């Protein structure tokens, strides 16, 4: 933690940093959209959906929801989390087996890897455990990889499927799976949700929630400040965190007792909120 953050924490009576950019399930704010997205994650997981798909813009809170889900699953579910998988056919299986803590050898052929994977699924099933593969940043997967994943979901024992997939990614993921040549894949998606940005009222609640969670005993951000934060961030949680963090630094350095609209304007005027400015410029274009 930076020395600057420690200074504003002392200034505003906080016991931890409220607006970290690192996903933290302990700070999870249940906006209506996040609650619905998580409900669909649970629905897909516990009803045996072959494929569950959750999409949303960068910084919307998808990874935070995943980490919360991982904390809730019981011992009867084996989770493999894969982020930014890439490569060819055999590479995908290596990523998957590595996520499931299975050792592979460089000389293993695709057939060897698939047999190892299938054996693992059967053994887990025999022990009463279901296997779930979660792909984060799944918009980076190509058509061939998605088709390979669909074939994985065909592995079954009698009427029971041995594998479930959860795909989480940016909006391009939904565009990808709607391609005519991925119709069979799309038909296996039994649960899906698109997580949208927060509206102004929700952004206000979000800011106050995180401040209270960090130990604040009073409202530090004025209504004008939260309104300006919403306008500058378009309701994207990661951008809200970044701008609010800068605002606390500015207010502390100016020895202010609260963050007001002028504080937000000063942050924006100085250009330190680069990610938000870039997003707005791209939106205009």
Can you describe this structure?
The structure is a single chain. With 285 residues, the chain is an alpha/beta fold. The chain has 2 domains: 3-21 and 198-284, Helicase, Ruva Protein, domain 3; 32-195, Rossmann fold. The protein contains 13 helices and 7 strands. The strands form 2 sheets. Strands 2-3-6-1-7 form a 5-stranded parallel beta sheet, sandwiched between helices. Helix 2 (32-46) packs across helix 3 (62-72), helix 4 runs parallel beside helix 5 and helix 10 (223-233) runs parallel beside helix 12 (261-270). Mean pLDDT is 90; it is low at 278-285.
CATH topology of the largest domain: Rossmann fold
- What is the number of helices? 13
CATH top-level class of the largest domain: Alpha Beta
Run of helices and strands? HHEHEHHEHEEEHHEHHHHH
Sheet/helix structural class: alpha/beta
Distance between the termini: 36 Å
Read across the widest sheet, the strand sequence of neighbours is 2-3-6-1-7
Biggest sheet layout: 5 strands, parallel
CATH superfamily descriptor of the largest domain = P-loop containing nucleotide triphosphate hydrolases
Number of domains: 2
Strand residue content:
5-15%
Count of DSSP strands: 7
Provide the helix percentage: 40-55%
Cα shape: elongated
Which whole number gives the mean pLDDT? 90
Radius of gyration, in angstroms, nearest whole number:
22 Å
| CATH architecture classification of the largest domain | 3-Layer(aba) Sandwich
Query: Residue ranges: pLDDT <50 for 5 or more in a row?
Result: 278-285
């Amino acid at each position: 933690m930076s020395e600057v953050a420690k200074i504003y924490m002392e200034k505003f009576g906080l016991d931890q940093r409220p607006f970290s950019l690192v996903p933290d399930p302990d700070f999870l704010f249940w906006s209506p959209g996040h609650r619905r997205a998580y409900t669909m994650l649970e629905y897909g997981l516990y009803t045996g959906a072959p494929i569950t798909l959750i999409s949303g813009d960068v910084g919307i809170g998808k990874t935070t929801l995943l980490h919360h889900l991982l904390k809730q699953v019981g011992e009867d579910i084996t989770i493999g989390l894969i982020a930014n998988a890439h490569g060819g056919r055999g590479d995908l299986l290596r990523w998957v087996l590595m996520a499931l803590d299975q050792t592979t050898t460089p000389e293993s052929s695709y057939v060897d890897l698939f047999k190892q994977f299938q054996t693992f699924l059967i053994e887990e099933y025999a022990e009463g455990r279901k296997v779930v593969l979660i792909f984060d940043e799944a918009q980076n997967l190509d058509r061939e990889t998605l088709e390979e994943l669909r074939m994985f979901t065909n592995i079954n024992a009698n009427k029971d499927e041995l594998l479930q997939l959860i795909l989480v990614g940016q909006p391009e993921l939904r565009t990808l799976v709607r391609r005519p040549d991925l119709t069979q894949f799309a038909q296996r998606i039994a649960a899906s949700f698109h997580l949208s940005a927060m509206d102004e009222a929700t952004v206000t609640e979000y800011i106050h929630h995180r401040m209270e969670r960090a130990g604040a005993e009073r409202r530090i951000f004025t209504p004008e400040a939260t309104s300006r934060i919403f306008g500058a961030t378009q309701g994207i949680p990661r951008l809200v965190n970044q701008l609010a963090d800068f605002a606390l630094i500015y207010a502390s350095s100016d020895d202010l007792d609260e963050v007001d609209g002028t504080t937000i304007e000063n942050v924006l005027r100085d250009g330190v909120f680069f990610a938000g400015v870039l997003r707005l410029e791209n939106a205009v274009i």
